[in-house]
User: Fold this.
Amino acid sequence: MDVLEAMDDLRLRTLAHMQRPLDRLIYLASTRDYNTGLYYHDGLAARFGEEAACEALAECHNEAMRELVTSSLEGLVGQMEGYMESARTRPTDFLGMWRGLEPYRVAVPVGTDPLAAGFLFSNFRVALAILDARRNVRPGLEPDASPRR
Amino acid sequence: MIQLVFFLALGLGFLGMLIFIMRRGRATPEGGAVALIEARGALDTLQGSLMPPELIGRIFEQQDLEYIEASTPAEVREFFLRERSQIALLWIRQVRTQLVSLRRFYTGRSRYYAQISAGTELSLGLNFLVLLSACRLLEVLVYVRGPFAAPRIVGATITRTAKICDFSAEKLEFLRPENPSEINRDRAGNEAI
Assistant:
């Protein structure tokens, strides 16, 4: 029961401000300790207890993953474009880093089915190629015009 | 000469049948737990990871291809087709592996645990044969013509696999107790005896 309440609270107070499943996936992945695989959120833990908070975060993480896997390629490209703009990084740097480091690989929940994960990673690679191609055919858009963080 | 060919063919047929019966006879109930767990695992993987319609639909539906064709240059299209082919091949191979695992259970151990008539066993054998052949054919088609080449075969494979999964789920239901407390109660009862 606590877990469900914690999930509602998390959705209402935090995730509601993130419209894109990609943003939610990355945010929720960032609340996970990579050594233990456990999720931490001080505010949620203070209200519902550490265990319930952890389970709520994990469940919402899985939810974001499912949403992203079922997004169309067009939808994913749109989400990445929006995420790139909100990151306030130069698009060339962003695309280069995402292609080189593949940060999306560590953003998926533990225990994700390999086929679903493989499918999502593949879509990320294609989306990056599309964004890259768009930048190359539209040089007039000043790729490096956005301020650097 | 014709008679010789006829008897040779007959002899070969008998030999084939003998080998088949000998192979069937080798299965014993001992060590069956591993086979049961393997079969249950294969079934869970097929039903849980490989058959969800939303994921399979996303892999094979043409919506992404239409988007790519309308808005990206040729090299991106080629890259997309390569990527999607790899995912499609991964799916086909995983389905095939799990089907082989499930078939192993039926050909080797099922008669000790599941009440299956000879007719059902034959029909299952045919279904497995058709499905495994369809997987091979799909593999070739995807490899040669891309991931969107054979939507009908994909659909038929999913439907037939789902039927085998439903049948197997029924036969292996005893491995998934609905109420674990019943097991504990049984165990307590056995200990009391």
In short: The mean pLDDT of chain B is 79. Chain B has nine helices and no strands. The first helix of chain B runs from residue 2 to 25. Residues 25 and 167 of chain B are 24 Å apart (CA to CA).
